[in-house]
Design goal:
This protein is of the alpha/beta class. It is built from four helices and five strands; from the N terminus they run βαββαβαβα. It is flat.
Length: 121
C-alpha cells in the first residue's frame, strides 16, 4: 500500500505591515494575526491522484477533504505558519514533515526558530 501524502502552501490575502503602508492595499495587524491575513489560495499536490490543485478561499472545505485523505502532510515552514493560518480559517491540519525544519536540522540549527540561533534567510 502506498502512503497518501499532500504537499501544500498557503498564500495570504492581506499584506503584513512592515514600515510605511500603501493606502491602496489591505493589511492585517502583524505576523501573528492569522485570521486577519486571510487566505487567498492554497496550492497542493495530492500524491494519490498525482495532481496539483488550487483551492481558493471559498473551496477550503475541499482542501480539508483532501487533508483528511492524506496519511502525511508536507510543507515549508508550515508548522510555524501555514498550519496556524489554516486553523484560523477553519481547516484542521497538522504538518507531519516540515521542509524548513529539516533544512535547519541538516545544517546544525535547531528545528524550530530560535532567536539568535537559527538563520532567517
Amino acid at each position: 500500500m502506498t502512503t497518501k501524502y499532500i504537499v501544500y502552501d498557503v498564500e495570504i490575502e492581506n499584506c503584513i505591515p512592515s514600515g510605511e503602508k500603501d493606502p491602496s492595499l489591505k493589511y492585517c495587524k502583524g505576523w501573528t494575526d492569522f485570521e486577519g491575513m486571510g487566505i487567498s489560495l492554497i496550492g497542493a499536490y495530492l500524491s494519490w491522484e498525482d495532481i496539483y490543485k488550487l483551492y481558493p478561499y471559498h473551496a477550503l472545505h475541499k482542501f480539508q477533504e483532501a487533508v483528511n485523505q492524506a496519511n502525511d502532510v508536507i510543507g515549508f515552514n508550515s508548522k510555524s505558519f501555514d498550519d496556524k493560518l489554516c486553523k484560523a480559517h477553519g481547516v484542521n491540519i497538522d504538518t507531519t514533515f516540515d521542509l524548513l525544519e529539516e533544512i535547519r536540522f541538516a545544517s546544525g540549527q535547531p528545528r524550530k526558530y530560535t532567536r539568535g540561533q537559527t538563520r532567517v534567510g
